[in-house]
């Protein structure tokens, strides 16, 4: 990855931080964004001088587009910023649905549009983080499952439209980050992990390694693919987070 520039969204915590650290370790120059400067500062402390942090809300279209345009050539874009709240579909208001759809799909699409010129110049690569098997439905995450299925479709569509740019949709199952721990009680996470065919979660290091591999060119014969990094959980009965 030496000499290559990567942008990682949500780089101040969890998966985004692990990805940023791995890319720096492999020689890339990494720009990390997120809303909380103190979280980004901790990633910067761990990463060293080849990591540059910029506080940015990816839902702020004007700021995000200006920032990405300013980067110029871009070898790798990792769209990792995302999240949702767990609620039954009947309890999700219009504003709630819009907030989750925006963060996980529409803002991501806008960032991709802003990055298109820089990615095309570089013959770059994109890794869009999604969620395992959203097309099967996830009770308690109707808004997020819809947005995440949209990411897979967006990834495939842009792979057709943007020749020379490789796009991947990487969909983890359960990764035991602090973020997921804040959203789901331990017993729900344990139940999901126990019903996974491999009987295990996916580690942060594994997600980071997959992003690094896809970003390095190992998979350059591939574009538009959905890769489910979930221990096979997408193969079994669709998940329910509501009991
Ligand atoms: C088949 C097998 C598949 C296996 C898959 C198994 C599943 C694996 C486990 C799940 C994996 C997921 C992991 C992760 O995503 S890790 C990241 C964890 N962290 C988060 O997700 C937190 C992120 N959430 C947020 O940052 C915010 O909630 C969000 C950005 C989404 C919204 O914030 P915003 O500030 O924009 O929104 P507001 O607070 O202004 O609220 C907007 C409207 O939304 C309503 N709302 C908010 N929270 C709730 C709630 N809990 N329930 C219902 N409604 C909610 C809020 O009321 C506002 O609407 P109204 O104005 O109409 O009231
Ligand atoms: N952990 C898991 O089991 C799984 C996670 N995922 C997905 O992987 C991604 C990372 O998850 P994880 O590391 O576990 O969770 P985190 O909550 O730790 O990561 C989310 C990151 O996104 C950033 N972020 C959120 N909203 C914005 C915004 N509007 N603008 C810029 N940055 C934002 C957050 O930083 P800040 O708040 O400072 O802005 C945070 O760093 C998410 O998209 C998540 O949904 C998918 C499948 C499973």
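^ structure tokens above, recovered residues below v
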């Amino acid at each position: 990855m030496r000499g290559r520039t990567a942008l990682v969204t949500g780089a101040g915590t969890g998966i985004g931080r692990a990805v940023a650290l791995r890319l720096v370790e492999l020689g890339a120059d990494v720009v990390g964004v997120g809303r909380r400067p103190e979280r980004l500062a901790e990633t910067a402390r761990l990463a060293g001088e080849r990591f540059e942090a910029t506080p940015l809300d990816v839902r702020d279209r004007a700021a995000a587009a200006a920032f990405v345009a300013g980067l110029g050539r871009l070898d790798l874009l990792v769209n990792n910023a995302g999240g949702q709240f767990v609620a039954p579909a009947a309890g999700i208001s219009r504003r709630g649905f819009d907030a989750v759809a925006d963060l996980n799909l529409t803002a991501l699409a806008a960032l991709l549009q802003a990055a298109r010129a820089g990615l095309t110049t570089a013959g770059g690569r994109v890794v869009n983080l999604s969620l395992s098997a959203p097309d099967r439905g996830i009770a308690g995450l109707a808004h997020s499952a819809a947005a995440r299925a949209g990411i897979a479709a967006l990834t495939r569509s842009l792979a057709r439209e943007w020749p020379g740019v490789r796009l991947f949709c990487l969909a983890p199952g359960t990764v035991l980050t602090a973020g997921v721990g804040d959203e789901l009680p331990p017993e729900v996470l344990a139940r999901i992990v126990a019903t996974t065919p491999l009987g295990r979660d996916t580690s942060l290091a594994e997600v980071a390694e997959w992003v690094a591999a896809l970003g390095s060119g190992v998979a350059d014969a591939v574009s538009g693919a959905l890769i489910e990094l979930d221990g096979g959980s997408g193969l079994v009965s669709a998940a329910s987070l509501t009991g």
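The first strand starts at residue 5 and ends at 9.
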